[in-house]
TrEMBL record:
Residues 7-165 form the Diphosphomevalonate decarboxylase-like N-terminal domain. Belongs to the diphosphomevalonate decarboxylase family. It comes from Oceanobacillus chungangensis. Signal peptide: none annotated. The gene is mvaD. GO terms for molecular function: ATP binding; diphosphomevalonate decarboxylase activity. Its EC number is 4.1.1.33. This is diphosphomevalonate decarboxylase.
Amino acid sequence: MKATARAHTNIALIKYWGKREEALILPTNNSLSLTLDGFYTTTTVDFREALSQDVFMLNDEAVTGEAYQRVTKFLDLIRGLSGKTDLYANVHSINEVPTAAGFASSASGFAALAAAGAKAIGLNLSDQELSRLTRQGSGSACRSIYGGFAEWEMGTRQDGSDSYAVPIASKEHWDIRVAAVVLSSTMKKVSSRAGMKRTVETSPFYPGWIESIPNDLNGIKAGIQEKDFEKVGAIAEANCLKMHATTLGANPPFTYWHDTTLRVMHTVQEMRANGIPAYFTIDAGPNVKVLYLPEDEARVEETLRNIAGVTDVRLSKAGSGITYL
Ligand code: DP6
């Protein structure tokens, strides 16, 4: 009863920002992402009769506290689906998602855990069922079941049965690249979970965010099919700015941006003024991800590395979906 799976993290081009139901993780809007090959988690789940509780090792260290609770709660879902509710597991995860790169490891982490856990306990899930299960660990993780571009359909049902990601275009469809720009920041972080909750509950800008989503989604999906980089980049950048604008309206107000975040944003816009098509997007943290085309890689990397306050730049191509090892 043992299985190993690998999942890659993803970067949202149309952001998931807000839940309509917290326990099941049901979002208030559809979102769309690109899976990245540079950052991933490999997880082995081993269910054993002899265990009296779950054990979770991350990068060879035992995990306790809240992170451990999230994993055991998620394993409870897998146990419940299989009917084998009295089995505990050894979970061993290796993260190739440097926290410093500003990617939440929860997306690749829960996708790999769901895939390995379901397989180990003998569930034979379709991609759609696996995405729906993964969603309940961390929302953005449900998109990491697929490679390339994926859309998380929010669904309408209260039981969450129609809320899962679907593939939009494979990584072979279009070679677009992402630079993860790492900043030397020690800012205290508002988690994405807490940040989106506060925004939904208190920001007067939130309804405007929700209203603007269908147009952004239609535009970006057309842009992906047409491989229109300017269109996709411009929509992704504007969507990110709108998401971050909602946090400024929250009570108490907050922002994930740092002075260096703004410097990187300005530099990307300057690159465009100088004829290099590059666009930024930012998740729930100060680090910036920059979208660019392969032919501009050297110039984009050099420009980003030269910004004061930038400590590292990590380049990535589009990645694949779940793989079993
Ligand atoms: C800004 O998926 O981390 O990265 O569902 O509460 O675990 P939970 O939140 P999470 O939120 C991700 C928010 C985001 C945008 C995105 O990835 O779509």
